Amino acid sequence: MKINRNFDNLVPNYLFADVAKKTNAYIAAHPDKKVIKLGIGDVTLPLAPVVVEAMKKGAEDLAHKETFKGYPDYEGYEFLRQAISDYYKSFGVAVGADEIFVSDGAKSDCGNIGDIFSKDNIVLVTDPVYPVYVDSNIMAGREIVYAASNEANGFAALPDENVKADIIYLCSPNNPTGSAYNAEQLKTWVDYALKNDAIILYDSAYEAFITEDLPRSIFAIEGARKCAIEMCSLSKTAGFTGTRCGYTVIPKELERDGHNIYATWYRRQATKFNGVSWPVQCAAAAVFSEEGQKQIKENISYYQENARIIASALDELGIYYTGGKNSPYIWLKCPNNMGSWEFFDLLLNEANVVGTPGEGFGENGAGYFRLTSFGDRENTIEAVERIKKVLTNLSK
Amino acid sequence: MKINRNFDNLVPNYLFADVAKKTNAYIAAHPDKKVIKLGIGDVTLPLAPVVVEAMKKGAEDLAHKETFKGYPDYEGYEFLRQAISDYYKSFGVAVGADEIFVSDGAKSDCGNIGDIFSKDNIVLVTDPVYPVYVDSNIMAGREIVYAASNEANGFAALPDENVKADIIYLCSPNNPTGSAYNAEQLKTWVDYALKNDAIILYDSAYEAFITEDLPRSIFAIEGARKCAIEMCSLSKTAGFTGTRCGYTVIPKELERDGHNIYATWYRRQATKFNGVSWPVQCAAAAVFSEEGQKQIKENISYYQENARIIASALDELGIYYTGGKNSPYIWLKCPNNMGSWEFFDLLLNEANVVGTPGEGFGENGAGYFRLTSFGDRENTIEAVERIKKVLTNLSK
Q1: So which domain of life are we looking at (chains A, B) (predicted)?
Q2: Alpha-carbon gap, residue A113 to A260, rounded angstroms
Q3: What share of residues in chain B are helix, strand, coil (percent, to 5)?
């Protein structure tokens, strides 16, 4: 009985555990201080009312024989897939309802999609990176190459023609750097993928935060239907982190190595997944209704205003950052060439503000720091004032 | 860019598609006939009232900032894991709340658990078999060996000391054969696994249908904590096929090949899964409440009575079968040495009753047929009367 030895190659990531440990130790030692957490990667605002009503109605359906629902379709109910297709249409992207798979979240799909690919593929990720892309491929035994996101490219890595890759993970707007690709940049990735016969796995979980004229889907780019799969989620769009629903788009014409990718993923899902809960699919469909869109946009605007408040303080202080616009994340360069953890300690001890050290997301994160906009407005304002005070004193 | 070529080794199973095609053709040709489906593998009774109320309350929690829930724990909320642990205790099995992983269903866990095992393991399944065990291991490239369930062993295969296996899938009460292992039989499997340093993956999805003095968990057997993982589901227990919730139990002391299995699975789930929806976990916990147990048992009794009605007709007719007791399935030998599809056609054309040909579940299913108890009482009675009439005429 042999274990998958690739698990031995996983590097334990204690980032959030260490953040929690240091934070809790500080709070225990200073019970009188009010510590504000701007490191939080989870949403805090409640679900939109119309979404909750739809979920309750879905629950009520299950209480009566006439409306009871058994096993759902593996790919999701048609009414939800059609609503997602219409949503894409609302920003000018054509995706068929029959190209959509509904799932319990983008993380599951990002991780499980590897099942359909050979282990003999080279995987490219941008660094800093959302750890799931790396760890799920280490588990599968694949070779991983890194494209550096850094100040020179605005933390939005572009392809290197000299690097060969078969599977490319892109996340835009990016977690953790908040940077978002424009159409021209994305086109270089699509061209690179087509030239290399590669597939792009495009994580668009933060597309709802885009405010400027930037692509909200890889399928806004010419050629993408021949080289890309897109994963999206309602977690940040509509506060579904605890409700669990996402979706993956696979163009019907996408083929590789003699296989139709849609059909292959369908076979995988039919074998190892049994669809998404009925009340959750009802709730998800309500997100895409006219009223639902109006209500979720209020929440998104709230987070966006938090991000703007943080970003303008950094502007005032003259600190380099990416994100803040088009993203709930603000990725900043630690002042005075401080290391990520050095800056973490400074903010915790002097401003009583908690953020996330960038080096936890990859080597290009060293010397950087992530703040998020998912907190309270009042706390965000107070945290920013404290940060400004500490950093102003620092530069004196 | 290479596809996982193991997908080429999957054998397309058109069983249910072919059943639907033949049934629909018959209905189209005979619009006046009332066709009754006893092939259905999905539940039909609504959720218990207390479960629906808990789900609605969970949905309402998400509507307010004070009670909102974000990312759930990967392994499930403690209150639900404790409720499951207490449920085990109610039939005399000690399983810690900290040994339980809550998931979106047993099928996901049965399929995904393979991630933590090397592809160089030999997998043993009993035949006839639930196709997920086979297909998920073909996708992973593992060698599969089959243990024959047949009339000689009451469709409850026992280990063959001459066969070497590393991973053993057992399902009891069994889908599709309805047979259930007794403690002595399960002990032979546990002993075999311990001797071979193998792991048993025990699917107990139908344990709630057990009425006789039979083990409801592999962990009722001495030694199982050193060689077994158990997967269970609320799909058939509480009508959760459309609600989606299951659980997997991994004893903390289970080790193989230098790895702790609980820790390895936790790492897999933390990387590729984001937990189960809050309202669904609330609903699941209600299943295990005193009132919930009372209410779900009414539904189970309803199905059990259907099974009894089918089984006693077969007794009258002198037809060999397994299941019917301790299981929602009745697995019968086609009379007059008919083939599975021959018998299917006879029942469809002469009795207007639809069942499932056994050969779709593996070679030992040839000449057998599956009926299920998940239909209406009235229809079940009518179907049974028609079957009796057709088979009585046949033997004349």
Answers
A1: Bacteria
A2: 14
A3: 45, 15, 35
**What are the residue ranges in chain A where pLDDT is below 50?**
none
- As a whole number, mean pLDDT of residues B116-127 equals 98
How many Å apart are CA A323 and CA A252, to the nearest integer? 33
What is the spatial distance between Cα B383 and Cα B199, in angstroms, rounded to a whole number?
A: 42
Q: For residue A168, what is the DSSP state?
A: E
Name the nearest CA neighbour of A102 among A269, A236, A222.
A269
- Tell me, what's the ipTM? 0.96
Homologous superfamily assigned to A13-42+292-394: Aspartate Aminotransferase, domain 1 (3.90.1150.10)
Structure tokens that stand for A183 in this block: 């159409």
Domain ranges of chain A: 13-42+292-394, 49-288
Residue A334 in tokens: 């630690």
pLDDT above 70 coverage of chain A, percent: 100
Question: Measured between CB atoms, does B264 come within 8 Å of chain A?
Answer: yes
At B313, the amino acid letter reads A
CA A210 to chain centroid, in Å, comes to 13
CB contact under 8 A, A1 and B121: yes
C-alpha to C-alpha distance for B128 and B368, rounded to whole angstroms:
10
A365 contacts A128 by C-beta, under 8 angstroms: yes
Cβ-contact A340, A218 below 8 angstroms: no
**Cα–Cα separations (whole angstroms), residue B393 to A1, A131, B316, B351, B370:** 54, 67, 14, 11, 21
Alpha-carbon distances of A163 from A158, B210, B340, rounded to whole Å: 11, 59, 56
Domain A49-288 CATH class label:
alpha beta
* Residue B347 sits at the chain A interface (C-beta within 8 Å): no
Helix (H, G, I), strand (E, B) or coil at B117: strand
List all residues of chain B from 6 to 25 with a beta carbon under 8 Å from chain A. 7, 10
What per-residue confidence (pLDDT) applies to B13?
Answer: 78
Q: Is B106 annotated as a binding residue?
A: yes
Using a CB-CB distance cutoff of 8 angstroms, which residues of chain A are in contact with residue B246? none
∠ CA B323-B169-A6, rounded to 5°: 160
For residue B361, the model assigns a pLDDT of 95
Strand partners, B122: B143
Residue that is written with structure tokens 């292959």 in the block? A264
Residue carrying structure tokens 């605890």 = A242
Task: Consult the annotation and say whether B147 binds a ligand.
Answer: no
Residue B360 · residue B15 · CB < 8 Å: yes
Structure-derived torsion over alpha carbons of residues A220, A225, A227, A230, reported in degrees to the nearest 10:
60
User: Tokens for B137?
Assistant: 């291991």
B76 labelled as ligand-binding?
Answer: no
Evaluate whether the domain defined by B12-41+292-394 bears CATH number 3.90.1150.10.
yes
